[in-house]
Amino acid sequence: MFSLERWQEIFETIRKNKLRTFLTGLSVASGIFILVILLALGQGMQNGIAKEFERDATNRISVWSGVTSVEYKGLNPGRFVEMTNADYNYLIEKYEDNLEFKSAVYRIWSGNLTYGKETGSYRVEGVYPDYQFLENESMVNGRYINYSDHDDKTKVVVIGNKVKQDLFGKQDALGKLIQVNGINFYVVGVYSDPGGEREETRVFVPISTAQRVFGGSDKVRNLGFTLKPKANFEATLAQSINFSNEIESFLKERHLVAPDDTSAININNTLEEAKRFYDLIGMIKLFFWVVGIFTIIAGVVGVSNIMLIIVKERTKEIGIRKALGAEPWSIVSMILHESIFVTAIAGFSGLLFSMTLLELIGPNLQMDYIRNPTVNFNVAITTVFILILAGALAGFVPAWRAARIKPIAALREE
């Protein structure tokens, strides 16, 4: 039941102890502010990691070869392992039922592209049609390479959006004839990539064409795969790890590489990497929660201490109230009202300040691995209400102590 006199008492007490009340409220507001900011940073880190994995398919398995580092079966270390079309064909035939997307890659690091008077050096890659999905690319104009291009060894090229801007400017690139290392190719598509301009400075041609016209024979530089997802993440991850291990064993056996050689066959499993990152983010978020909660607890303890001091200062007043017939619950209510009021105002102030700061700065914060730090508003508001409940509990102990004071003892208090 609303009591104007009760609120007048509360405001009078706060007015008489402005500095003490301000410092108590500041500790509570700081706790909520720190917790919200820490939770937002944790979400920002998760957003940043997710953005990094957007560049390629999130369940991609990439394979590339290197130089042997261990002597094996009479072969000296230092051999460069060259994968071939036969390696790729064997793997896709063996695991056909489990594969979602697949492609081998024949790469030319420095390809000179010329259109009219414009020229530039870009990475040229011979790929299969599925490579578009392995790279998470979207078509801006035209089409991607198809299997007819591969089978017929046609001289067609798909260029990145950055390449299109460099060579064609505002012109339409489709159907135009460009030269790749002096050989004519027709532009059939322009793509964009979530990785930005760095990923859009590449051009793609059918792998059969690249191997034929650029002297690649049957060699490939990379292999890329994604597997069909299972019913849940753990099963999908287990399948992905098992597939990676089987690829490594097969290639090492086929190319006479020692089982313990860690440099000749390299495999990157983005799903496994993602799990490591998200497990780390989960631990960081948990740490942030612990730090924030203990900061709030420190503020609530401060409220409790202040309420104890208030009870001590008002002991004589409480004794008079009880001598005049005041019920114990009215004494408890008087102390609790002030505790809850200070906690609520401080909690909502800390929440408002932190949310405003995130709204102003968050969308513009684009650091490495931290993007648009935000916090779920429902989580934040729930935290404040829990804080208010904690403030009530913090005030209850001093309030109950005040309610149990005997009037005669209180009246003797100086």
Outline the structure in words.
The protein is of the alpha+beta class and 414 residues long. It has two domains: 4-52 and 276-412, no CATH class; 60-271, no CATH class. The protein has 13 helices and 14 strands. Helix 2 (18-53) crosses helix 11 (328-361). It comes from Leeuwenhoekiella nanhaiensis.
Please sum up the structure shown.
GO terms for molecular function: ATP binding; transmembrane transporter activity. The protein is of the alpha+beta class and 414 residues long. Helices cover 55% and strands 20% of the residues.
- Give the neighbour order of strands across the main sheet: 3-4-9-6-8-7
Quickly count the helices. Answer: 13
What is the quaternary state of this protein? Answer: single chain
In total, the number of strands is 14
The geometry reads as elongated
Task: Output mean pLDDT.
Answer: 82
Q: What structural category characterises the helix and strand content? A: alpha+beta
Rounded to the nearest angstrom, the distance between the terminal CA atoms is 33 Å
**Percent helix:** 40-55%
